[in-house]
Amino acid sequence: MTPPKIKIESLDFYYNNHQILSNINETIPENAITSIIGPSGAGKSTFLSLFNRLWETTPGARVEGRVLARFHHSFMDINTPKFSVTQLRRAVGMVFQMPNPLPMSIFNNVAFPLKLAGIKEKEAVQNRVTAAIKACGLWPEVKDRLEKKATTLSGGQQQRLCMARALVMEPEILLLDEPTSSLDPRSGAMIEELMVDLKQRCTLIMVSHQPDQVEKIADHIIDFTPGPES
Ligand code: ADP
């Protein structure tokens, strides 16, 4: 197993008075695919939201315990105030269950995070967008239509575009919430291959409801299936 990228220590999570996660202690290995499994409502998406602090947008949500991530050699608690959400979300990308392209061109979708980060130099933007689209295996399919609306792409292409948009910031961690469940089997298989390729450059954490997918690509599994005593 590769060294840890994230350590979760004595973690409890609440939505108001409703405790969703209790005393979680887990390690997420770096440059590997960790799969989060368990029945609906078990807290998988909530667990995923810990790593980019997406949970903070929910009123009444509260975390106790620590989420330590290793950026620049040392572990840091990502919930400490000195770690800004903006800084965190540059290092932690996310891909959702349904492809969610922005209402703009294919090129501008992938360039958008660079624009938000204030990266304007035309050649740098061009190079990074091209590299991210190529990394997602989408280049041959879109290179002649980069100015067309992203919504003209198929569902599978849109999901790979969303992955390119997440990768353009060169994140160290990529979160994926059931990334293939809305796709046909062939598009799903392409995304799975892509995830395996991406291990070389980042740490992937994926919620999945598909046992065959977990068996095929996961290096490490965190199971939220309640035990017989709960
Ligand atoms: P899973 O991803 O395993 O289906 P979730 O993390 O989405 O589980 O949800 C875990 C529990 O938290 C469920 O009981 C759900 O109803 C509750 N929950 C999820 N999001 C919210 C929210 N924004 N406010 C209150 N409760 C929520």
Polypeptide structure, described:
This protein is of the alpha/beta class and about 230 residues long. It has a single domain, classed as P-loop containing nucleotide triphosphate hydrolases (Rossmann fold, 3-Layer(aba) Sandwich), CATH 3.40.50.300. Helix content is about 35%, strand content about 25%. The protein is globular. The mean pLDDT is about 95. Adenosine-5'-diphosphate binds near residues 15, 20 and 58.
Topology:
Layout: E1 4-15, E2 18-29, E3 33-37, H1 44-49, E4 61-71, E5 74-77, H2 85-91, E6 92-95, H3 106-116, H4 122-135, H5 139-142, H6 155-167, E7 173-177, H7 185-198, E8 203-207, H8 211-217, E9 220-223
Bound molecules: adenosine-5'-diphosphate.
CATH topology descriptor: Rossmann fold
The CATH superfamily title: P-loop containing nucleotide triphosphate hydrolases
How is the biggest beta sheet arranged? Answer: 5 strands, parallel
Overall strand count: 9
Ligands and ions found = adenosine-5'-diphosphate
Tell me the Rg in angstroms.
18 Å
Instruction: Quickly give the CATH architecture.
Output: 3-Layer(aba) Sandwich
Summarize this entry quickly.
This protein is of the alpha/beta class and 230 residues long. The chain contains eight helices and nine strands.
What characteristics describe this protein?
binds adenosine-5'-diphosphate; single chain; 4-stranded antiparallel β-sheet; 9 strands; 8 helices; Rossmann fold; 27% strand; 33% helix; alpha/beta; 5-stranded parallel β-sheet; 230 residues
